[in-house]
UniProtKB/TrEMBL annotation:
Pfam families: eIF-5a, IF5A-like_N. Residues 85-164 form the Translation initiation factor 5A C-terminal domain. This is Eukaryotic translation initiation factor 5A. SMART domains: eIF-5a. Belongs to the eIF-5A family. NCBIfam families: eIF_5A. Residues 1-12 have a biased composition (Basic and acidic residues). eIF-5A seems to be the only eukaryotic protein to have a hypusine residue which is a post-translational modification of a lysine by the addition of a butylamino group. It comes from Rehmannia glutinosa (Chinese foxglove). Keywords: Hypusine, Protein biosynthesis.
Amino acid sequence: MSDEEHQFESKADAGASKTYPQQAGTIRKNGHIVIKGRPCKVVEVSTSKTGKHGHAKCHFVAIDIFNGKKLEDIVPSSHNCDVPHVNRTDYQLIDISEDGFVSLLTENGNTKDDLRLPTDESLLSQCRTYVFHRIQIKDGFEQGKDLVVSVMSAMGEEQICALKDIGPKN
C-alpha cells in the first residue's frame, strides 16, 4: 500500500447529463427535443411510411425554448434523439438592479442573483407560450406587488419565462 495522499478536485456537476436518449417514434407534440444543439418544444410531428430502402421517418417542427426560433429535423423513427432535461422553478422576486439583473428568493432562503430580465423585444413577441413583458415585471415590482417569476432551465441555460402576481406586499 502507498502512504501517498490523493486529492481530487470536485466538479460543479456530478456527471449528470444535460440530455437523455429517446426513440424518435415516441416523441410527441408538446414534448421536448434537441435540434441543432438547442433545446426545443415540439409543435408538430409527422411520420412517413417505411420506404423501399429503410426506416419510417419522423419530421419534427419545434420552437427553441429560449430564443423562439423555429427549427426542423428529420430522424428515422427507430433511432434515438436527444431530449433535454427541462426544469421550471418558481422564485419570489426580491429586487431588480439598475442593470437589469433580478434578485430571486430560492426555496431554501438563499438568493439567486445571476439572471437578467429578458431584453430582446422580438423574443417577447415570438414566444407565444411564455408571453409576458419585461415592463410588467418592473411595473409590478415598482407598485409594491409580490411577484413570483418562473425560470426555465435546460442544457445549462436559464431564462425567466413567466410571471405571477400573488398580491400586494404586506
